[in-house]
Sequence to fold (668 residues):
Amino acid sequence: MKLQQLRYLRAIARHQFNISKASQSLCVSQSAISKQIQLFEHELGLELFKRKGKQIIGMTTVGETILLKAEQALENVNDIQLLAEDKTHRRQSLSIATTHTQARYVLPNIVGRFVKQFPDVSLHIHQGNPIQVAAMLEHGDVDIAIATEALSDASAILAMPCYQWSRSVIVPNGHALSQLNTLSIAELIRYPIITYVQGFTGRYKIDEAFQQYDINPDIVLTAVDADVIKTYVRLGLGVGIIADMAVNPEQDKDLDVLSAKALFGVSTSHIAIKKDKYIKSYVFQFIELFAPHLRLSVVEQALLLSDSHSLSKLFSQFSIPFFQREGGEESNKV
Amino acid sequence: MKLQQLRYLRAIARHQFNISKASQSLCVSQSAISKQIQLFEHELGLELFKRKGKQIIGMTTVGETILLKAEQALENVNDIQLLAEDKTHRRQSLSIATTHTQARYVLPNIVGRFVKQFPDVSLHIHQGNPIQVAAMLEHGDVDIAIATEALSDASAILAMPCYQWSRSVIVPNGHALSQLNTLSIAELIRYPIITYVQGFTGRYKIDEAFQQYDINPDIVLTAVDADVIKTYVRLGLGVGIIADMAVNPEQDKDLDVLSAKALFGVSTSHIAIKKDKYIKSYVFQFIELFAPHLRLSVVEQALLLSDSHSLSKLFSQFSIPFFQREGGEESNKV
DNA sequence: CGAAGTTACGGATGCCGTAATGATG
DNA sequence: CATCATTACGGCATCCGTAACTTCG
Fold:
């Protein structure tokens, strides 16, 4: 049995049982994988894959079990490499999986400070929807995941609250809504609404608020991207509901910004790591930079706790800070 | 990185950092190991072993961490092989680590029934002192460990109670002690005592009983082996205290056997498996054969529990049976 | 000087890639 | 006929063993 064979097995499973795709992802020929899998199956004396002629259509039950063990073994092996790279300071890299909102409005400031502090660490930001972000973390493809939506209920993932935020309603300057003393749901729904796509940036909180009053708002347009929302608000297509973080006082002078905290409540964004993966030293540094209350000692404590109950107890000791923009110029750098 | 390199690393650590010993245990040349370790260290870019000139005298701290990960990886790999062998019914083997008392007096009957039921499974009984038995199980060298003493407090080990037993005092026929109505500690210590070596076969229970009365018995001889004890009792050197299981009514007709249950209480023997190791199907069968109350479903339940509290709660549902000899002829077969 | 580890070299094995061949829809 | 898996073959890397060398107690 070779580690390569385990890697090939995993790659095939991760590419819809398509050897060609798997071979491309590993930069080897199809034949190499095909042959090694055959050798592996022969050595074990059993079939790992269900075949229909020459086509692979799935895994056998033993195959599934063996895949699980193989993934664990590869994870341990990967940990050894990460550990060595961390200790020797070679090939230092930090991979972050996150959603658009974080990448565009929250991370720039943090990332700017991080690269100044760790100039030798190469940074990789993988953007995706919340489900993809969670998957990237679970697969061990990234060191850190940052998102507002549930990152994962898997016990192998540790998600920690890093900041709270609320929403703002944005309208063109001088819009009727700007004249009101207090914004209400009743007033809001008199206009077409532009906001996030479902599943993104706490959209469900907005839906909940409307449902509570049994109101069916006229949502004319949705986007994953606050910039897109702003653009259509500027065109007068409707009023926008976006996350606080996405409001840029300097660039958005042509828009009136009304806090909608009272209407939609607050959301909490989380930063998550994979518990059983080796955690590089500067991952802890990044976390502390991002959320100062998540000091090394706190994260280490959290890593030892397994049940969600004692975890939330741990974090309830801290007041999770609200998001706040730090210096307009800084935030657009990098 | 190669699996071999991890195996070599582990072997060196398990042989007091002696490459020559490690190479012998793996049936390869010293140079093979020496070179692979060097290549591995070079690939990682750090030293795994502390050296003094050419002598290896220990591991570095990173080395320790990497060894841990390597052992986990190898365990997963080993599981894959075990699983395949189990499913394909090739190279079926069951390794049991146990102490002398179990191997000599308890196991023969069980083993006899097991080999009848699984004629294709080759059986290996590794005998050792309780500490060695626990180590063999923790290293994954054996599938099952059976002993009375604490097998391990490690959470990776699941120890289950299988039967209870008490002690008997043995004396030559017609000895003064046989004439008594009830045996007491006070009567007992009037004679020299022959019993087990410390750390074996519940010896500590005997010591406890004497200490309770603040008595210093005259223990003239200790052995790991009840047969040895019997021999010296026959020679008239003293009275013997041995485990119930070791009494053979047929062969021991020249000895009078007096129950000492009231004096020394009862002990419970345990059967243990390594939780995260792959458990072959016939391991479950063996366990049930050995302790009928430990049915497959019970063991599976126990495997899911992590804390000792809920475990003891689970087992408190069953009345752990007392040991009883089953057919004198049977027990000496095999 | 003996025990233990490292270095040197030759042989065998094994892994991969290219290219041809065989299935499948 | 296009896609995908398997088979065939040659080149290159690598892993091992024997044996000589080095270092420490």
Observations:
- Chain A touches chain B through 27 residues (CB under 8 Å).
- Residues 2, 4, 28-29, 31-32, 35-36, 52-55 of chain A lie near DNA strand C (CB under 10 Å from a C1').
